[in-house]
From TrEMBL:
ATP binds at S10, F11, H18, G89, L90, R91, E99, Y124, S125, F126, L127, S128, S129, S130. Pathway: Cofactor biosynthesis; coenzyme A biosynthesis; CoA from (R)-pantothenate: step 4/5. Belongs to the bacterial CoaD family. One of its GO terms (biological process) is coenzyme A biosynthetic process. It catalyses: (R)-4'-phosphopantetheine + ATP + H(+) = 3'-dephospho-CoA + diphosphate. CDD domains: PPAT. Homohexamer. Keywords: ATP-binding, Coenzyme A biosynthesis, Cytoplasm, Magnesium, Nucleotide-binding, Nucleotidyltransferase, Transferase. GO terms for cellular component: cytoplasm. The record marks H18 as: Transition state stabilizer. This is Phosphopantetheine adenylyltransferase. Its EC number is 2.7.7.3.
Amino acid sequence: MGAIAVCPGSFDPITYGHLDIIKRGAKVFDQLYVVVLNNSAKHPLFSVNERIELIKEVTKDIPNVKVDSFQGLLVDYAKSVNASAIIRGLRAVSDFEYEMQITSMNRVLNDEIETFFIMTNNQYSFLSSSIVKEVAKYNGKISELVPYSVEIALKEKFEGKR
């Protein structure tokens, strides 16, 4: 068995920034689980199953990526798939403080699982799912921010809400 990592997120929806981190993580680890958080505190636009399907669609050409979801503690999920690492993307210095808190807690919960931070490509440093949803809601151009299948899914969501 090779090195296994988990790349968690809400992915509501997945963006080119997320994809950048996933592709680069998949080059480093033998198996990469992209896992959708099922966070009851958030009110996502897409259901967990819809997010999973979108991620599967845009990562289908990356053979060592598996897509899943989880509820609960990330370190418990990581342990269940024999992962030795968690991959987190950083866009800017402002992300670091929050990520450091999460990483420190994960380390307390399971010190055998390492966290690796990957800085996103500069062209995506401003990008978030929230920004994409806001632009899409008002029919703004998002083709440079998300894959085509995600763009279509967003348009369908917002047309259905009108």
